[in-house]
Each structure stands twice: as C-alpha cells, then as structure tokens.
C-alpha cells in the first residue's frame, strides 16, 4: 500500500477532512456517488495499478449476481405462470435445474475472484514449495517467482464480495441492480484497509441512504477515531520497536526475552488492529454509516472459543457462514458422518466430521492471514486447541461440579489470563520468521533461565526508553479501564452524560497525548497497520 | 441555549489551539546552549539597523568571520546569515528573504556548500529552516530541502516534528519558552578555545569532481538576484582545511567567477597574508573551524579588501549606529571574557562540551 494513504498519513487526514465537508454540503441524494468517487480516489492514490483488480471483482460479481438474480426471476415467473399445471415433482425438478444453472454462475464467479486472490497472494508461496520439493528430490529445475504486488485490502474486499454473491445464490436477498452501488459496497474505503468484512444486507442499508448532518455522529465518530489513533500511534507503534528488536534476532533474544516478545506482540497486535478498526468505524460514523463491531474485548475471554467469537468477529462469522456450515452439510461430509457414526459409535462418530470441518476452516483462516507455513501452522494450532478444549468438556463439567469456583473472581481471572497466554503463544507463529524458529523461541522460554536479566536494565536496550515504558504502562491501564467500563455499555454515551468540563478535559488529554506521545514522524519507523497486508 | 452551546464549543476549540501552540513552543528545541547553531538564523530578525555586507553560507562563514571586528576595525556593518551545513539553496532563499528587509552593498557567499547537490540531513535542514520567518522564500526553501518521508506540514506545525522531545525537556525549555538570550554576534558563533592541527589526513578520491547541476542552478540564481538588485557578489573559500577543498573544485569556481566577473578569494591560499596559523593558535577543532583569534585575523584582512574594493563607508562616526554597535561590542567582549574564564577554570568550554 502506498504510504501516502495510510490511516496515519497527513494526506489521509486531509482526504477525510475534505470528504466530510463536501459530503454534508452536497444534496443528500448524491452522497453515495461522492463516496464512490472518494473510494476510487483513495484506491487510486494508494496504488493506481491495483484499480484493475477491484474493478474486475466488482464487474464479475455484478455480472454473476445479475445472472443468478435473473434466474430467480425467471423461476418465479415460470412457477407462477404454471402454478396449476405443474406437479410437485416437476416443480422440484425445475427448481433443481435452475439451481444448477445458478450454481454454475456462482462457481464461475468464485473461481474467478478467488483465482485472482490465489494467484496474487499465494502463487509465490506455491512456487516456493514446489521448488523446495524439486530440490528435495534432487532436481536442478527451479520455477521462477512471479513479480506480483499485493493490492490493498484484496482479501477483505474479495471475501466481502464473495459473501454477497453466495447470499444472492442462497436467495437471502436480491442482487444489486445498480453496478455503481455494488461498486460502492465493494470499495467502501475505510474498511478496505483492514476490514471489517461487512455483509451486504447490513452495509447496504446504511450505505445508500441519505445522511443528514448530525453533531452527535460527528462528535462520537471523532472520539472513536481519536481512540483508534491513540491505540495505534501511542501504543502499537511505540511497542513495535521492541517487538522488532526481539523477534528479528531470536538467536540473541531467548528465554525471558522470548516471553517478553510474545507478550509485547500480543499487546501490539491488539492495539494495532483494534485501533485501525476504531478509526474505520469512527470515519464511517462521521459519515452516518454504521459498520458492525469487529471486536468485543477479546482479551477478556475465558476460553479460546469465546476469544474467537470476540476477535475479528467479521472474519470468524464469514468462515462460519460460508465455509464451516457448507462443509458440514456437504453431501460427502454427511455420508462420512454417517459412516463414522456407524463404525465409531454415536458419541465419537458425530464429532469426527465436525472436527474435520473445524480443521479445514482453521487451515483456511491461517492461509487467509498470509501465504506462509507460519500462518497455516498457526491456523491449524488454533483448530487443534479448540478441538482439545471440546474434548476436555466433560472434564470441565466434572471439575465445576466438584469445585464451586465458576463464578469466583479469582477463577475467572485465571481463565482470562490463561486464554491471553494461550493466544499469545499461538500468535508467536505470526511474528517469527518461520515455524522452526517459533518452536525454538517458544522452547527457550522453558529452557533458557535468564529471567533475572529482565531486571538488570536489558529491557532498556530494546529501543524503548524508561519514558516509553511509562507511556506503555499508562496505555495498558487506560485500555483495561476503558474495557472494564465497556462491560456496562457505551463509553461514549457515558461520557456524553458527564459535565462539559470533564468531557472536554478528556478530549484534550486524548488529542494532546496522541500529538505529543504518538510514535510517528521522522525518527519513528511509522509502520503500516498489521492487517493491511491481508 | 443553542447559542450558548455553540460558544462553548468555539471556546473549547480555541483553548485547544492555544494549548497546542503553547506545547509547540515548549517542545521546540531552544538552541541556547550546546547546539546554538539553530538560533543563528532567527537572530537576524532582531536587527534594527541595515548592513553593508551580508555573509551567507555554512559554518565556514558563521565561525570564521567576526562582524564585530569588521565594525571595530573598519566601521563596516555586517551580518552572517549562516547555519550548520547550510546548503546553497538555503543560502539563496535566505538571501532572497534578506533583500526584502534591506539592500546590502556586498553579499559574500562561501562556496564550500557547492559540493552538495541534494538535501543531506533533515536535522541540519531544520537548523536553518525553523529559524526563518514565514514567507514565500521559506516555503520555497522548505520545498527545495525536504527529504524522503518528510512532510511540509511538519514545518508548518513543528510540534509534529518535535513531539517526541517531551521526554527530554529540561529547565532550559521552560526558561526560554517565550524569550531567548542572544547567542551570536551578528550571526558569528564565538569560540575562544584552541585545538591546533596536528595531522592532515589524506583527502579521499572522489568519483566525480564536478559540482552538481542543482548547486550550479542556485549559484546562477544568486548571481542573477544580486545583479538585479545592483549588489556586488563575492565568492570566498574560508581558510579551514576540512572538509578538503579539491583543486578540481577550485578550478570550477575560478572559471565561474571569471565568467561572471565576480570577485573570488580562496583564503586557503592566503594563510601567510592573513596571519592565520592553524597549527598553533587559530582553530578550536584542529582545522575544521577557526576560533575567535582566527576569525578576527581573517576579518581584519578581508575587511580591508571589502572596504578598498567596494568603497564601503566607515560608519563609526555615525552616532546612532555607533550606539547600536557599541552594545554589540560590549556583548562580544563579555562573552569572550566569560569563555576565557570558563576555559581557565575547567580547561574547556562547558557549554560546548557535547559538541566536540
């Protein structure tokens, strides 16, 4: 992604400021057109050559959607015209025939768009693996790598668009007749950067309507944007310096430092990703467009299943609705399920197909995160941990029957800490350069006993000063406090009920802390949002 | 009620802007002790009387020429508009800006910066540019100097550049929040300490000895600008031995001066005439810059040339000017005395300890 349109760039801030002003000055019926133009301008400024990909996805999806939609119309017309003359079987047969035609369009659309994503994002990964195998078998032949740059947000908009076409195929809603409106849905610029992956039926309701100016939207939206910048600039980009130092030199930084790196990375990833989503949702809110929440205080989850319900929600639900469920009800899978029940018994037999679907979904989730074995192993590891926790369910039930600790604060705290540590361990696959290095770093936490070095000033040699640590500590306290307040409702609503003086004092603090303590500009390695690359 | 709410919001925004302005003042480096080069450019705006001669260039002018000596010896009024690693386009735009305030008879440009064709370091650019008052000249100077990754907005709102200084603030930042002490003597950076040259390293060979097109472009513009205003442009090369001044560079400047009918003096070739001795008394950093003794010797020699060649008036009989300059002379003497005392007490100049 071109640096000129990063969320943290001045040009982006100028871009959205101008857009806000023009958006509320023009007649409301033209607002969606302005947004579409802004989306394409944003995309153009981020990398003009990538426009072709998003346009290809939009046009192909529109075309396939139109075909599927017109087949639905044709079916409806035919069935109503021949209402009395067709038997139930004939109707069923006709519907199956139409469904099969629609399926072909859907399949073509999925293959085309996932094909683009596959080639651009995964071709070199595949080539690298083929080359490795060729070498392993003693062949001198090596395939050349493709020179392909990853267009901004390709995973996000491809998944969003494919969700739309699958829903149209399923008859969940009719296809969008206006290609420009569909283009707006595909390219809505704030979510192009790092999601969320919106659903057409949610987003279209709010995207195309007329939007009157509202002070509350402006105020709440700006608060959310500022909160996002606080997380990104003050916390994530500051801690990034230490994370880079620790993970780029795993041979030096072992044991205690691997543990610190793991925890710092978990902290950074949370601040970075949720900060970006806050900015995205805040921008949309100022434009009077509602996006679904993508996080629900995930680090307060008591187990991994709950964690994945609360972290990157839009991705999780996408995989659930468009991969897990279809696999689960796929005919061969149903047959396999039957086979398992017959051979392994009911109890085990009904779980095996679910676990296979789970592993497939987590394999895909890992692959979605990146074209590398790290991500695939990370995905599968998540799936395995989920399966193990499912298998341990009877034990948990026994434990809770025996010990009445379920609602005790201490036990809940233990569950939260356990989940955070478990997820942080799994996240190590994200940050180290390859799988063996990750395992070595993880293992070193238990074999290299250098924990005393954490107290001899070594932490000040990771690129962070004592003042930086103080800021990070403050950031952590603020994040936890806000999360705790969020348990009982919207922080912004609560703030709005406070006296003006208190409100403005808090806004001032937030703005000044971002400007003064933000890790940006010359001297800082201003990083892209981690999720940009997806 | 609605009107009241609007007023409260406007007041809140104004308060925020004032707070940010205040913070910006606090976080900007003050350049009053240690690295004082950042204060040199802005001190020009304190001047109340015009100047006969304006010196422009890098450290080879602001550490090597003493305007106070030029006044005391010849009654020449002068100012040095120079800063650390001041690039030729900085010098050009500073000159352009200076000509909006006054019209000197002579402009002296030190040619060492011809060796730079591209911006070098953002930190050095800042030393020159942050001190300039806002004008089209400053805008053009910034645009000519910006490095990759820099933004014009960082110059408009320096808090965006210096925000990370919050953890380095000292009492100096509060003390000089709104008013700074004068640190230079009409742009001259005084050092009285001595560190003679002991050895001269062999200059490294360059791949290309030709000055770059950009540097020539700004020199052409400088010639054009001074001609347009009827000002004499003099080119000089200061008598310091680092960075090395190559013969190939000398030849190019000589040819250029001849072609444009400009006076060019290479003081490296006039060491005997000026009396400058870098091996004993006249440099404080082994030949990179002159100290007060060396700067005064050079000024005495150069002042005579300037007066004889361009007929510069001796203003010492002008009561009003004398009053102004008497104050400058007094400040010059006080600073010299203070530095000598410091040197006597500690053996080095405490305030510049980190620079050396």
Summarize the SSE layout with pairings.
The complex is a heterodimer of chains A (534) and B (356).
Chain A: H1 10-25, H2 31-46, H3 51-81, H4 88-136, H5 154-170, H6 179-187, H7 189-194, H8 200-207, H9 215-248, H10 256-286, H11 304-310, H12 313-328, H13 331-344, H14 346-349, H15 351-369, H16 373-391, H17 393-402, H18 409-431, H19 435-447, H20 466-486, H21 491-496, H22 500-517
Helix pairs in contact in A: 1-2, 2-6, 3-4, 3-5, 3-6, 4-5, 9-10, 9-20, 9-22, 10-18, 10-19, 12-15, 15-16, 16-18, 18-19
Chain B: H1 2-27, H2 37-40, E1 53-57, H3 59-62, H4 67-74, E2 78-82, H5 88-101, E3 106-110, H6 122-129, H7 136-145, H8 152-156, H9 159-162, H10 171-175, H11 213-228, E4 232-237, H12 247-259, E5 263-266, H13 271-274, H14 292-310, H15 319-346
Parallel strand pairs in B: 1-2, 1-3, 3-4, 4-5
Helix pairs in contact in B: 4-14, 5-7, 5-11
Task: Report on this structure.
- The complex is a heterodimer of chains A (534) and B (356).
- In chain A, helix 9 packs across helix 20, helix 12 crosses helix 15 and helix 18 packs across helix 19.
- Chain A starts with 9 loop residues before the first helix and ends in a 17-residue tail after the last helix.
- In chain A, 72% of the residues lie in helices and 0% in strands.
- The C terminus of chain A is likely disordered.
- Chain A is globular and about 85 Å long.
- By secondary structure, chain A is mostly helical.
- Chain A has 22 helices and no strands.
- Chain B has one domain: Rossmann fold.
- Helix content of chain B is 47%, strand content 7%.
- Chain B has 15 helices and five strands.
- Chain B has a five-stranded parallel beta sheet with strand order 2-1-3-4-5, with helices on both faces.
- In chain B, strand 4, helix 12 and strand 5 form a beta-alpha-beta unit.
- In chain B, helix 4 packs across helix 14 and helix 5 packs antiparallel against helix 7.
- The longest helix of chain B has 28 residues.
- Chains A and B meet through helix 22 of A and helix 1 and helix 9 of B.
């Amino acid at each position: 992604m071109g640096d000129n349109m990063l969320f943290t760039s001045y040009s982006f801030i100028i871009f959205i400021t101008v857009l806000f002003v023009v958006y509320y000055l023009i007649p409301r019926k033209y607002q969606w057109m302005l947004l579409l133009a802004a989306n394409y301008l944003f995309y153009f400024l981020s990398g003009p050559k990538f426009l072709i990909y998003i346009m290809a996805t939009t046009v192909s999806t529109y075309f396939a959607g139109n075909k599927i939609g017109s087949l639905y119309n044709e079916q409806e017309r035919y069935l109503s015209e021949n209402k009395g003359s067709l038997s139930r079987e004939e109707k069923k047969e006709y519907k199956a025939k139409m469904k099969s035609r629609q399926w072909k369009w859907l399949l073509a659309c999925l293959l085309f768009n996932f094909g683009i994503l596959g080639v651009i994002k995964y071709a070199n990964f595949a080539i690298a693996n083929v080359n490795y195998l060729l070498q392993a078998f003693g062949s001198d032949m090596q395939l050349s790598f493709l020179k392909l740059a990853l267009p901004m947000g390709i995973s996000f908009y491809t998944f969003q668009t494919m969700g739309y076409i699958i829903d149209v195929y399923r008859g969940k809603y009719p296809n969008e007749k206006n290609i420009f409106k569909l283009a707006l849905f595909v390219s809505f610029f704030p979510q192009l950067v790092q999601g969320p992956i919106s659903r057409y039926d949610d987003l279209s309701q709010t995207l195309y309507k007329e939007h009157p100016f509202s002070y509350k939207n402006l105020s709440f939206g700006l608060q959310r944007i500022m909160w996002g910048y606080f997380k990104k600039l003050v916390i994530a980009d500051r801690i990034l310096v230490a994370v880079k130092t620790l993970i780029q030199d795993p041979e030096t930084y072992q044991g205690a430092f691997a543990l610190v790196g793991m925890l710092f990375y978990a902290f950074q990833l949370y601040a970075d990703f949720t900060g970006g989503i806050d900015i995205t949702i805040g921008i949309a809110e100022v434009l009077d467009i509602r996006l679904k929440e993508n996080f629900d205080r995930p680090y307060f989850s008591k187990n991994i299943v709950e964690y994945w319900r609360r972290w990157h929600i839009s991705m999780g639900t996408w995989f659930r609705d468009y991969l897990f469920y279809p696999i689960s009800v796929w005919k061969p899978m149903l047959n396999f399920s039957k086979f398992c029940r017959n051979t392994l018994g009911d109890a085990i037999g009904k779980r095996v197909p679910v676990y296979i679907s789970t592993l497939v979904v987590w394999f895909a989730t890992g692959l979605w995160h990146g074209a590398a074995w790290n991500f695939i192993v990370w995905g599968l590891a998540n799936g395995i941990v989920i399966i193990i926790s499912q298998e341990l369910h009877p034990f948990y039930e026994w434990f809770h029957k025996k010990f009445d600790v379920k609602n005790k604060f201490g036990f809940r705290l233990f569950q939260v800490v356990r989940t955070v540590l478990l997820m942080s361990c799994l996240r190590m696959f994200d940050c180290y350069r390859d799988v063996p290095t990750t395992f070595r770093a993880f293992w070193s936490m238990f074999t290299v006993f250098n924990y005393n070095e954490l107290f001899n000033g070594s932490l000040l040699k990771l690129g962070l000063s004592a003042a930086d640590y103080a800021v990070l500590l403050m950031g952590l306290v603020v994040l936890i406090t806000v999360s705790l307040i969020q348990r009982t409702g919207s922080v912004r609503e609560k703030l709005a009920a406070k006296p003006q003086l208190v409100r403005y004092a808090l806004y001032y603090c937030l703005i000044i802390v971002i400007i003064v303590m933000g890790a940006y500009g010359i001297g800082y390695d201003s990083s892209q949002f981690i999720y940009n690359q997806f | 009620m609605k009107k009241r709410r609007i007023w409260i919001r406007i007041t809140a925004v104004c308060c925020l802007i004032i707070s940010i302005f205040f913070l910006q003042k606090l976080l900007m480096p003050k350049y009053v002790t240690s690295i004082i080069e950042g204060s040199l450019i802005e001190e020009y705006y304190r001047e109340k009387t015009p100047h006969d001669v304006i010196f422009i260039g890098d450290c080879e002018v602001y550490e090597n020429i003493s305007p106070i000596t030029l006044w005391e010896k010849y009654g020449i009024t002068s100012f040095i508009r120079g800063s650390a690693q001041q690039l030729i386009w900085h010098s050009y735009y500073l000159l352009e800006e200076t000509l909006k305030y006054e019209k000197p008879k002579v402009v002296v440009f030190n040619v060492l910066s011809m060796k730079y064709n591209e911006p070098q370091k953002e930190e050095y650019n800042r030393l020159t540019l942050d001190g300039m008052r806002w004008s089209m000249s400053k805008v053009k100077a910034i645009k000519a100097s910006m490095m990759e990754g820099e933004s014009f907005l960082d110059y408009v709102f320096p808090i965006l550049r210096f925000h990370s200084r919050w953890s380095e603030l000292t009492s100096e930042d509060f003390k000089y929040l709104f008013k700074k002490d004068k640190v230079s003597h009409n742009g001259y950076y005084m050092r009285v300490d001595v560190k003679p040259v002991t050895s001269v390293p062999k200059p490294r060979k360059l791949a290309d000895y030709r000055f770059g097109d950009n540097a020539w472009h700004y020199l052409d513009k400088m010639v054009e600008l001074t001609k347009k205003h009827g000002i004499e442009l003099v080119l000089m090369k200061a008598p310091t031995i680092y960075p090395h001044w190559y013969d190939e560079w000398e030849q190019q400047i000589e040819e250029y001066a001849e072609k444009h009918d400009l006076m060019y003096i290479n003081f490296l070739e006039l060491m005997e005439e000026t009396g400058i001795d870098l091996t004993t008394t006249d440099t404080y950093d082994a030949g990179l810059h002159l100290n007060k003794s060396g700067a005064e010797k050079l000024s005495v020699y150069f002042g005579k040339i300037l007066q004889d060649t361009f007929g510069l008036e001796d203003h010492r009989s002008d009561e009003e000017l004398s009053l102004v300059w008497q104050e400058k002379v007094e400040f010059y003497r006080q600073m010299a005395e203070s530095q000598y005392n410091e040197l006597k007490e500690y053996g080095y100049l405490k305030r510049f300890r980190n620079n050396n």
